């Protein structure tokens, strides 16, 4: 009977003033409730429920999910756009070429002259730096430069990873107008005598003296490197206003030296100032670092031809695994620093052959 009434109600032929909820598991428990009473939760059974809801209350319809009308599915409107496939260009994945630094752009690649520009009362301001303090063999090289002209690409030589780029900058520095420069080479024997710090400071003082006085007393001037000479030698030069090589004449005006590091050499020929990390902050110090670095690299290439067993062209004298194996097999040469570890822990004969190696 109730099922028939439900069908008539859904067909819109009958209406009721009350809601009747009849669980299938217990039909006797059905009760009539007035619309003012709150709806009771029907007991949860395994079977479904049959509900009758009047049209007078839409809220009661919403409460019973069995009597809710399913909304009609809206057909999605697909936008059809006519595109000319012939005009579409295929996507091409092209790798961006790595931009190379333009050496002619001085505004973006040239270090500033912050400290140098503040020293207006001095006629000449030179930068001084070194290369080769850490390697196991080879000399330590110091350089000083008074370079009035800005050159693109001048920065700390350690930040210039390509050797050919350092070589190019080296040549451009030597061809710049009104240049004064000097390079001092302190060999391994001298380093072992006075230690690497004192050898470096000594080389810096000699360079400053050569740049300002035009000559160096007590030390010979040679045009190229020679491993037969013990101690130190210096190479210096200058250019005129056209950038051509000329004689390095003494300076009578006031001069000032900017030195990379935190220590100053003794007996400097002019006033000086130490700047920590100056090779990455001041233009003149960076230029001196390039002169020192390229000079030492060229020396190591020459030493590699004399001692090919040690691969000095590649390791530049640093104690790589290949280099240390060569030392154990062939011994140490005259350009090796005997006071540097691990050589200082090895006992050698007069020819550099290792006799006994300590466990250290």
UniProtKB/TrEMBL annotation:
Residues 55-109 are annotated as: Disordered. A divalent metal cation binds at residues 129-130, 260. InterPro entries: RNase_HII, RNase_HII/HIII, RNase_HII/HIII_dom, RNaseH-like_sf, RNaseH_sf. GO terms for cellular component: cytoplasm; ribonuclease H2 complex. Its main location: cytoplasm. Manganese or magnesium. Binds 1 divalent metal ion per monomer in the absence of substrate. May bind a second metal ion after substrate binding. Gene3D superfamilies: Ribonuclease H-like superfamily/Ribonuclease H. Its EC number is 3.1.26.4. Residues 123-352 form the RNase H type-2 domain. Keywords: Cytoplasm, Endonuclease, Hydrolase, Manganese, Metal-binding, Nuclease. Its cofactor is Mn(2+); Mg(2+). One of its GO terms (biological process) is mismatch repair. It catalyses: Endonucleolytic cleavage to 5'-phosphomonoester. GO terms for molecular function: metal ion binding; RNA binding; RNA-DNA hybrid ribonuclease activity. SUPFAM superfamilies: Ribonuclease H-like (SSF53098). It holds the Pfam family RNase_HII. It is found in: Cytoplasm. Endonuclease that specifically degrades the RNA of RNA-DNA hybrids. Belongs to the RNase HII family. This is Ribonuclease. It comes from Fistulifera solaris. The lineage of its organism: Eukaryota, Sar, Stramenopiles, Ochrophyta, Bacillariophyta.
């Amino acid at each position: 009977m109730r099922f028939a009434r439900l069908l008539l109600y859904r067909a819109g032929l009958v209406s009721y003033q009350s809601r009747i909820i009849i669980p299938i598991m217990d039909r006797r428990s059905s009760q009539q409730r007035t619309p003012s009473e709150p709806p009771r939760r029907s007991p949860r059974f395994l079977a479904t429920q049959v509900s009758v809801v009047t049209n007078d209350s839409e809220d009661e319809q919403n409460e019973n999910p069995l009597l809710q009308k399913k909304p009609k599915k809206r057909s999605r409107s697909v936008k059809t756009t006519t595109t000319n496939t012939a005009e579409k260009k295929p996507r091409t994945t092209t790798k961006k070429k790595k931009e190379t630094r333009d050496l002619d752009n001085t505004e973006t690649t040239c270090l500033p002259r912050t400290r140098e520009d503040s020293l207006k009362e001095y006629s000449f301001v030179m930068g001084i730096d070194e290369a080769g303090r850490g390697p196991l063999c080879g000399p330590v090289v110091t350089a000083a430069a008074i370079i009035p002209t800005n050159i693109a690409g001048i920065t700390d030589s350690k930040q210039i990873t390509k050797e050919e780029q350092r070589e190019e900058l080296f040549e451009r520095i030597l061809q710049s107008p009104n240049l004064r420069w000097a390079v001092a080479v302190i060999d391994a024997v001298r380093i072992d005598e006075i230690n690497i710090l004192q050898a470096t400071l000594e080389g810096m003082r000699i360079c400053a003296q050569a740049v300002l006085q035009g000559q160096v007393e007590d030390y010979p001037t040679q045009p190229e490197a020679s491993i037969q000479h013990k101690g130190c030698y210096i190479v210096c030069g200058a250019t005129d206003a056209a950038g051509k090589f000329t004689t390095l004449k003494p300076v009578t005006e006031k001069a000032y030296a900017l030195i990379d590091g935190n220590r100053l050499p003794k007996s400097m020929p002019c006033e000086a100032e130490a700047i920590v990390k100056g090779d990455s902050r001041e233009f003149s110090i960076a230029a001196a670092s390039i002169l020192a670095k390229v000079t030492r690299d060229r020396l190591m290439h020459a030493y590699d031809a004399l001692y090919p067993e040690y691969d000095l062209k590649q390791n530049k004298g640093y104690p790589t695994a290949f280099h240390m194996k060569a030392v154990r097999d062939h011994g140490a040469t005259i350009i090796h620093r005997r006071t540097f570890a691990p050589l200082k822990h090895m006992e050698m004969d007069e020819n550099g052959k290792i006799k006994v190696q300590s466990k250290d």
